[in-house]
Specification:
It contains 13 helices and eight strands. With about 400 residues, the chain is of the alpha+beta class.
Length: about 400
């Protein structure tokens, strides 16, 4: 195995075909603009140098260590280090490849201190790493796209303005890092409050209202809309959804393309979010109809995601809701009781995957001046499998 001193020069990673295409596009590409900023030409060696400089700018320093050196320095086992690295979403590296920075070394030391303190149990280390890696990967992709728009805006096809690039290096990246820490702490405080207010036995399993909101005709829209129009549609949909859910004291769990998964602590809160969301999206001139499915039940919350029968039922109901409407399950229909704000109409039982007879109710706001909606007979749970 090749020996590398921590301070030794490290080879730049080879330029990939994708990198070459990005730099050899008709206008030189945005990376070509950065290359001109650094005074780098168009040869493969120059492109490798460009990527090295950009990487060091973001990581805060050069690559200094091989995996062997990092493991020897921190005391972490080779197998555990490799598993955690993959769990974070990064490809395997050779033992003698110089790819790790001082930041990587400090991160491994911090993780080892967390393990020693018992804050990260050994049986969930990889799951925690995977959850963090997936969340950060999506955030990083979005931020890089945003920063590119920031540094290249208003500069035509000549590539990023050098002054804008320096502004990103000196101001924007540190501000993003500080903002992320602030938002994380606020969410941490909110999560702690929810946990402390719940039953001690419900730290992972809680009674929640689960909702899915799905754009109708999204597949057709992707075929007829230009990329910029599709981006605007998705941003408008997710922006309105995030605002409505937060206003209703709910939480967006995740977005998957044209669909948003959210939860609320109380049944009436979930119902209000659904109706407000339908109303807001109906008023939009740019968005197509949406359909929503809601269900109530015990939900397992794990690493930022939710699991359980209520999640499955809400997804099935969403698929069968008519455009511009919301369907709710039996539990939510019963939980809303005699609430005068809502009106429920029984729908024909649905035959869906996993359920032979899935009972559903159409949710709507009560008509003005009608008072409480008609009394509904409370239905007993059916014990037969495949019914809900």
């Amino acid at each position: 195995m090749k020996s590398n001193h921590p301070e030794s020069a490290h080879p730049a990673p080879p330029a990939s075909e994708a990198k070459n295409r990005a730099l050899s596009s008709p206008d030189g590409g945005w990376l070509g603009g950065i290359a001109r900023l650094f005074g780098i030409g168009g040869r493969a060696e120059d492109r490798d140098e460009l990527y090295r400089r950009v990487e060091e700018l973001i990581l805060g320093g050069p690559r200094r260590y091989t995996r062997t050196q990092l493991i020897a320095d921190t005391g972490m086992s080779r197998e555990l280090a490799a598993r955690l690295w993959r769990s974070l979403g990064f490809a395997d590296v050779d033992d003698d490849a110089v790819v790790f920075t001082d930041g990587d070394r400090e991160a491994v030391r911090q993780l080892d201190r967390l393990r020693a303190a018992g804050l990260v149990p050994a049986d969930v280390e990889e799951a925690v790493s995977r959850s963090i890696g997936q969340a950060m990967a999506g955030l990083a992709d979005w931020q890089i796209e945003m920063l590119y728009q920031r540094v290249s805006g208003g500069n035509g096809g000549d590539g990023p303005d050098p002054r804008r690039v320096m502004g990103v290096a000196k101001r924007v990246l540190p501000l993003l890092e500080e903002t992320q820490t602030y938002v994380w702490r606020r969410h941490l405080a909110a999560a702690a409050g929810r946990l402390l207010a719940s039953d001690p036995d419900e730290s992972q399993t809680r009674e929640l209202t689960v909702g899915f909101a799905d754009i109708v005709g999204f597949t057709r829209a992707t075929r007829r809309l230009r990329p910029a129009e599709l981006t605007e549609l998705i941003e408008d949909f997710q922006g309105i959804t995030a605002e409505v859910v937060a206003t209703g004291h709910g939480r967006v769990v995740k977005t998957v393309g044209d669909e948003v998964l959210f939860v609320a602590d109380r049944p009436e809160g979930g119902a209000e979010i659904a109706l407000h969301l339908l109303r807001r999206l109906t008023e939009s001139d740019t968005l197509p109809d949406v359909r929503i499915g809601l269900a109530v039940g015990p939900v397992v919350t794990l690493f930022g995601d939710v699991y359980g029968e209520a999640v499955n039922i809400a997804a099935r109901l969403t698929a069968h809701a008519r455009p511009g409407t919301a369907l709710v399950d039996r539990n939510l229909a019963e939980a809303l009781g005699e609430d005068a704000r809502f009106q429920l109409r029984t729908r024909r039982p649905l035959a869906v995957r996993g359920y032979r007879n899935l009972h559903a109710w159409a949710l709507a706001p009560a008509a003005p001046g009608t008072g409480a909606p008609p009394r509904r007979r409370r239905l007993r749970r059916q014990s037969a499998p495949g019914t809900a």
